[in-house]
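Work Package 3 (structural annotation) set out to generate three-dimensional models for the target panel prioritized at the project kickoff. During this period the team completed the workflow that converts sequence records into discrete structure tokens, so that structures can be stored uniformly alongside our sequence database. As a representative example, we reproduce one entry of 77 residues exactly as it appears in the project archive.
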Amino acid sequence: MNTSCFACRGDECIALKPTKACCEGCRFFKTMRRARIGRKRARALIAAKPPEQQKYIADKYYQGAMPWRKDGEKHDH
């Protein structure tokens, strides 16, 4: 088991659905630091998109919130 992976919770990998046992050599392995960097990069890419695409992403994946914006608030529908 690799407990330094961002997705390892106890002995299960939460990155996979349905959850599976964590194991050494998992191709989804990522440290917490790398996971934070990845989220930051993804949010920067979303922030660079046109407003309508940002609204679509916010509604579909973030319950209307826009965490990539400095205010992080929900958009007007």
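Residues 37-69 form one domain.
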